[in-house]
């Protein structure tokens, strides 16, 4: 019993401890993001990032994480799923902050599992320089203060949608759209010229080329999902940095310096593809331009469906390899997938017979489109080798290096008439979305084939989808995506559910034919209706919460779930007659965006709701948290009570087993006597003992043997041929019951 008591005490103590841990963990589970609030200034939410592989830490060790990232000269930190902290090298496409942040409590934010919270922890130390040159560039100049940093200039050029910038000269930030041909120099890059009284970099230079102009790219090293503009948007003076705009702000901007977006006007100057929204992040209001649901904002400032690049580092090959003796560099196939598009290094062939650049896949794919980045060119002739280059497909996995394979390949498409050099992608969309391929091959056009020596700096390959040219379907056809041999393929079908949308009418559709498209974007549903009514149209339609259309003769088709319109899916049109009588429309007229508190971290999606609704939601969520705490306490008490019940059961079983041992001892003694030819019958005292252990006594008017048999037969099925009056058999039955 001492052993049992000790066991029970430890078990009960463990149960209480577990219960307390459950309560404590639940009470603190909503504090996931407390440790990331002070990581730095918030940048945005991103679909993926490229980070240093060896610098991943729990964000709870924020000081350690920050110090390590700064030692690596990286100024961006990404907090991702499992609360891991990563040092960011380059940023992938951006999404709404609502996808990273969903409400845990009124004053806290939590992490989603599929996206990255990105924070800036200091000035940028590493700048993505391409080369230096003495050649003059065609630039777009912006006047800036004398103490402007290189990082600020890069952000200005990026916001203006320029891909390059050059060394800061006096008070001018110079942005470049495309690079000029010329002689390029590249040695060791040094960034030691600082802004006065600051740690920010003013300029960088290449060793032994300090007096030359350094060219940088804007697309990959700098954050582009910014809540505040890098320059002032004054009404009469554009592209400058001013403390105060005397004549006010351009439409869509506000504040003294006109650097904050105003979602109430001109869609916050977010253009025709994106919508200006307000999101609460870490209890702070953050304004951003957001692509419609189902798409991401790329580094090129366009909205696309996110797709993974099919090119892997070990899947690229060349028919031959060019060796650059001047730079002592072998132009290997691995450069096709090294995430560097500067064109200084590239994969280059050295023949004009087979003359192919290839990427092979682990399985069959239907290829939708390809992005090709060229190399740096010294002159037009150098770049012209890729004029009208051909993208081809094959089901083969390997190719001959010594023979012409052009007749074995299927054509996907061709590149531009004039190839673009480094830094800007050349996109080729395949003509046939139904071909399944194991390899993708790039060759020069038939006119350029004899030149050989073609080179590509980076290659990206993507699967087909309905988002690309409607999956190659006709305008009046419906595109659907299906699986064929694990590959995504598109299927085109005629629209059979076309109907007229005549007032009163409400619905969500993916196909629309209407009379008038408004040249204003990001309007609320009420504003769109008002614009339509002013033009004498009865029916309004809003696509993806951004584009407004009107008509009296409206045809719709391909009906979609209403949830697509609620989420403002990039393909969904919400068709309606009157906002005032429609609940959905009334609930989504505001441009302010928050997050549905009832969604989970893995599936949180933005719903467009008003600030009042957001406040009510936070209040409800607080009440929900209190309810959850009560439930947790009740569950903990239930665990304790269940444990006590289990302990009682264990104790009962333990005592029963102890009585069984007594009976076993009695029977063993009897069998021993039988084996020694001693008298077999059990004594009355022993039988009574057995009956007492079984909880049954000798009933009045019964013999001892009858009582034993009765007790035994109650618990053990009587085997055939057994004499119930045999006390030995009856005792054996009692033992079997105890044993069971």
Automatic annotation (TrEMBL):
InterPro entries: Kremen_rcpt. It comes from the Eukaryota. Residues 1-27 form the signal peptide. This is WSC domain-containing protein. GO terms for cellular component: plasma membrane. It comes from Helobdella robusta. Keywords: Membrane, Signal, Transmembrane, Transmembrane helix. The lineage of its organism: Eukaryota, Metazoa, Spiralia, Lophotrochozoa, Annelida. GO terms for biological process: signal transduction. The chain crosses the membrane at residues 629-650. One of its GO terms (molecular function) is transmembrane signaling receptor activity.
């Amino acid at each position: 019993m001492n052993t049992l008591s000790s066991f029970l005490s430890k078990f009960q103590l463990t149960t209480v401890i577990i219960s307390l841990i459950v309560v404590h963990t639940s009470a603190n589970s909503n504090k996931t993001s407390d440790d990331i609030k002070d990581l730095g200034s918030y940048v945005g939410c991103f679909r993926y990032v490229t980070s240093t592989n060896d610098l991943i830490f729990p964000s709870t060790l924020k000081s350690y994480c920050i110090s390590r990232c700064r030692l690596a000269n990286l100024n961006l930190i990404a907090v991702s799923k499992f609360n891991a902290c990563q040092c960011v090298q380059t940023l992938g496409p951006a999404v709404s902050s609502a996808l990273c942040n969903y409400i845990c409590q009124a004053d806290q934010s939590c992490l989603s599992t599929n996206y990255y919270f990105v924070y800036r922890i200091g000035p940028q130390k590493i700048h993505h320089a391409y080369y230096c040159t003495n050649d003059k560039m065609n630039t777009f100049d912006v006047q800036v203060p004398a103490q402007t940093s290189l990082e600020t200039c890069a952000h200005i050029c990026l916001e203006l949608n320029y891909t390059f910038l050059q060394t800061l000269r006096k008070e001018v930030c110079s942005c470049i759209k495309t690079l000029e041909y010329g002689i390029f120099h590249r040695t060791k890059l040094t960034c030691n010229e600082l802004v006065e009284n600051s740690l920010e970099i003013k300029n960088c230079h290449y060793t032994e080329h300090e007096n030359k102009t350094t060219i940088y790219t804007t697309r990959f090293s700098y954050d582009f999902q910014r809540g505040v503009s890098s320059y002032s948007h004054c009404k009469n003076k554009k592209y400058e940095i001013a403390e105060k705009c005397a004549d006010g702000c351009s439409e869509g901007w506000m504040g003294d310096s006109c650097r904050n977006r105003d979602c109430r006007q001109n869609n916050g100057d977010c253009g025709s593809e994106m919508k200006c929204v307000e999101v609460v992040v870490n209890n702070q209001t953050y304004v951003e331009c957001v692509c419609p649901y189902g798409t991401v904002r790329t580094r090129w400032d366009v909205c696309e469906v996110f797709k993974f690049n099919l090119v892997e580092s070990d899947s690229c090959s060349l028919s031959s390899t060019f060796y650059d003796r001047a730079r002592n560099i072998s132009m290997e196939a691995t450069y096709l997938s090294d995430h560097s598009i500067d064109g200084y290094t590239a994969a280059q062939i050295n023949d004009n017979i087979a003359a192919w650049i290839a990427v092979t896949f682990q399985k069959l794919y239907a290829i939708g489109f390809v992005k090709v980045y060229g190399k740096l060119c010294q002159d037009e002739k150098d770049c012209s080798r890729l004029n009208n280059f051909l993208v081809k497909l094959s089901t083969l996995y390997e190719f001959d290096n010594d023979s012409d394979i052009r007749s074995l390949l299927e054509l996907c498409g061709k590149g531009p008439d004039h190839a673009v050099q480094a830094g800007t992608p050349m996109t080729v969309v395949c003509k046939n979305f139904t071909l399944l391929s194991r390899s993708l091959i790039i060759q020069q056009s038939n006119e350029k084939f004899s030149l050989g020596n073609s080179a590509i700096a980076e290659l990206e390959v993507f699967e087909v989808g309905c988002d690309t040219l409607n999956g190659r379907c006709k305008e009046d056809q419906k595109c659907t995506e299906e699986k064929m041999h694990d590959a995504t393929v598109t299927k085109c079908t005629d629209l059979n559910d076309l109907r007229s949308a005549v007032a009163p009418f409400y619905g969500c559709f993916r196909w629309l034919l209407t009379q008038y498209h408004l040249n204003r974007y990001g309007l609320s549903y009420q504003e769109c209706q008002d614009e339509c009514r002013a033009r004498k149209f009865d029916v309004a339609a809003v696509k993806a919460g951004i584009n407004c259309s009107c008509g009296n003769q409206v045809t719709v088709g391909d009906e979609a779930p209403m949830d697509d319109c609620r989420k403002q899916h990039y393909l969904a049109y919400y068709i309606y007659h009157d906002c005032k009588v429609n609940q959905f429309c009334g609930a989504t007229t505001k441009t302010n965006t928050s997050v549905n508190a009832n969604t989970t971290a893995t599936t949180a999606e933005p719903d467009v709701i008003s600030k009042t609704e957001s406040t009510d939601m936070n209040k409800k969520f607080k009440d929900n948290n209190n309810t959850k705490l009560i439930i947790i306490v009740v569950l903990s008490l239930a665990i304790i009570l269940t444990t006590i019940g289990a302990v009682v059961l264990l104790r009962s079983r333990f005592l029963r087993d102890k009585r069984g041992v007594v009976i076993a001892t009695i029977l063993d003694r009897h069998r021993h006597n039988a084996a020694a030819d001693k008298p077999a019958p059990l004594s009355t005292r022993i039988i009574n003992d057995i009956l007492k252990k079984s909880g049954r006594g000798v009933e009045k008017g019964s013999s001892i043997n009858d009582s034993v048999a009765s007790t035994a037969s109650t618990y053990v099925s009587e085997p055939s041929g057994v004499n119930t009056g045999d006390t030995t058999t009856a005792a054996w039955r009692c033992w079997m019951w105890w044993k069971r």
